[in-house]
Amino acid sequence: MTQQSSTGALTEAVYYILLSLQVPRHGYGIMQFVQELSNGRVQLAPGTLYGALSSLVERGWIQALEGTGRKKEYEITEAGRKALRSELNRLEELVRHGHEWTKGLDT
Asked: pTM, whole model, 2 decimals?
């Protein structure tokens, strides 16, 4: 049995935001990255994005960079990397179990 994360499952928006912040980005850059990475399947509305960014800053998972001009840029913190790694492990486990238990099923 695997160790459970204290963070729980991440929403898809939070997952993609954390993934996008492996390099510093501003809000619009995050929205573009997520849309491109998900082939247009995930589109973050400004209200969703900025609400999530605020929440992630409060959790200590991301931080705003100082002195980046008019557009505020964000970067992931070590705590955010741990949360992202935990979610990747959880998702990999889900996929592995799905493959193991659906072998031989007609799709």
From this structure: 0.85
